[in-house]
From TrEMBL:
<dbReference type="InterPro" id="IPR029062">
    <property type="entry name" value="Class_I_gatase-like"/>
</dbReference>
<dbReference type="GO" id="GO:0033969">
    <property type="term" value="F:gamma-glutamyl-gamma-aminobutyrate hydrolase activity"/>
</dbReference>
<dbReference type="GO" id="GO:0005829">
    <property type="term" value="C:cytosol"/>
</dbReference>
<dbReference type="Pfam" id="PF07722">
    <property type="entry name" value="Peptidase_C26"/>
</dbReference>
<dbReference type="InterPro" id="IPR011697">
    <property type="entry name" value="Peptidase_C26"/>
</dbReference>
<protein>
    <submittedName>
        <fullName>Gamma-glutamyl-gamma-aminobutyrate hydrolase family protein</fullName>
    </submittedName>
</protein>
<dbReference type="InterPro" id="IPR044668">
    <property type="entry name" value="PuuD-like"/>
</dbReference>
<keyword id="KW-0378">Hydrolase</keyword>
<dbReference type="GO" id="GO:0006598">
    <property type="term" value="P:polyamine catabolic process"/>
</dbReference>
Length: 229
């Protein structure tokens, strides 16, 4: 039986010590989580918008990975913060991947920035600056979840499950076709959403790839992605 091909969007970064060289990057734990769940991870490098159709055609499911802020032009706002943590070419390419995945009815699993971008692609908006959502160190967790019963997240995580937090922006207006299924009980930040009907969409604000080795619920999330989403 052929393995499920899961495309993971890659970022581009300059590596210190390798002056002038740009690398395609993705957290290895994200690919490992897919592989451990029985899927075959395929990293999709940033490319031309015209390539989106071919990339989506070759995969079974799409993961939108974390990274930079989403350019506010895509939700009708001017930039209101002092930051250079943007990559317009990535936004444009991944928005094309989203459009094509929706057209081809391919499931989308969106993590952190990916969740924010998917919300924007579907007509939502973002808070450009939030506080107290970036924990110290990549190990461990920082807060709990308030989960909507009978949701996809509710099938995978317990009420009060602990998650990590590495984001400086968050969802402001949720896109019309989505429903929020988990919140941060401290301030109401949307931590998960899914599609109301139709397309198989699941977005989470935290990073399960940094937890899956020690957390059975996170491993279950990756199995759900590969086997059911």
């Amino acid at each position: 039986m052929a393995k499920v091909l899961v495309g993971i969007t890659g970022n581009e970064k300059h590596i210190p010590g390798q002056t002038g060289m740009t690398y395609v990057t993705v957290a290895s734990e994200l690919a490992q989580g897919v592989s451990d769940a029985g899927g075959l991870p395929i990293v999709i490098p940033m490319g031309e918008v015209s390539q989106a159709r071919d990339y989506v055609t070759m995969i079974d499911k799409l993961i939108l990975s974390g990274g930079q802020h989403v350019d506010p032009r895509f939700y009708g706002e001017e930039k209101s913060i002092e930051s250079d943590d943007y990559l317009l070419a990535r936004d444009e390419f991944e928005l094309a991947l989203i459009r094509e995945a929706l057209k081809q009815n391919k499931p989308i699993f969106a993590v952190c920035r990916g969740m924010q971008l998917l919300n924007v692609a579907l007509g939502g908006s973002l808070h450009q600056a939030i506080e107290d959502h970036w924990q110290d160190g990549y190990a461990g967790t920082s807060h709990s979840l308030r989960i909507k019963p009978h949701s996809r997240v509710g099938q995978l995580f317990d009420q009060g499950s602990q998650i990590n937090s590495f984001h400086r922006q968050s969802i402001k207006d949720l896109a019309p076709g989505l429903v929020a299924t988990a919140h941060d009980p401290r301030d109401g930040t949307i931590e998960a959403f899914e599609s109301r009907k139709g397309a198989s969409l699941l977005g989470i604000q935290w990073h399960p790839e940094f937890l899956w080795q020690e957390c059975e619920r996170s491993r279950q999330l990756f199995r759900y992605l590969v086997e059911q989403l």
